[in-house]
Amino acid sequence: MKHFLFSLVILFTTILTAQEAYKFTTITDLEATPVISQGITGTCWSFSSTSFLESEIIRLTGKRIDLSEMYQVRNTYPLKAENYIMRQGRTQFGEGGLAHDVMNSVEKFGLVPEEAFSGLFKGETTYNHAEMAAVLEAMLKTYVDNPGRKLSKKWRAAIEGVLDAYIGKNVTNFTFEGKQYTPQTFLEMTKIKPEYYVNITSFTQAPFYSKFILNIPDNWSNGSFYNVPLDEMITTIDNALENGFTIELDCDVSEKTFSSKDGVAVIPENAENNVKALQGIYPEKKITQEYRQQEFENYDTTDDHLMHITGLLHDQNGTKYYKVKNSWGTDETRVANGGYVYFSEAYMRLKAISITVHQDAVPKSTAKSLSL
Fold first, then answer.
1. Is pLDDT at 17 greater than 90 in this prediction?
2. What is the pTM of this model?
3. Domain coverage including residue 124
4. What does the alpha-carbon distance between residue 319 and residue 321 come to, in Å, rounded to a whole number?
């Protein structure tokens, strides 16, 4: 009887603990610029990567600079259009992209501050690219169909004209804090060197410690990724944060257990707790390399959204969470934590498609294996 009563006490205590509301303690909180909204656009890749670069500029120079997200979008669209035409329409177009698209744009076209190129016209306060994206795609499909039987050389100018009309004409020089800059001299001032940033992932379809093209829909530019074991990818994130480096993140946010409104992302051990786990602590699933691969190959883990990892937290049970900056604004009726989402380690292990980080943030043992 005593044993039975003791078991009941343990069971009751476990239930109470499992339903306890989250209480987070900040461990690491690196500097980042304010949360903003990408509006009605599919350009999270530029908003998150730009936020990442803003934190890098703080780390490298101490300067807090509001960079233009739309400058990189404006310069990337013509490259996407060229790719679509040259591949005769047999590739991804749309609004999506990845972190290396921003890095490629920065290397080729430089950086500019938000005040020099906002991508908004007089009277506009929010972004909405729905019409522009539809117009561009319709144009490109027409060019691929080639109704004139010979593709006119005017198509590039036509694409540029649409981008000028919806986002604005490209900027070539500007004044910032009383000094004249071009996009390239501004890039030099920020001390950002795009070649120092690496993309890292963890999947078993390619050998570990090799570099391969990750075949996901938004990798239209065929960017390469270093492949490492899952434990090492997580260790790289932790090492970066511990040493003052933030991290760019490509992840899956389509899960019911991801909620910007509740401000958490978790992987409950029991799927019956998926909704309840957004408000209270429940045991989480152990994520192995094999399970991660299985979920990726059956399309349960997909390339949905890019965000910016800026810190580390613990809940009251000591479970590790990552502080992840989103680009969906700060409206308290729609988002929690001022626009941040706290990812449990389990969620990160399963749903992080890839990361981008400065090469100096990679642990020495992993860097050696990758010949960095």
1. no
2. 0.93
3. 21-369
4. 7
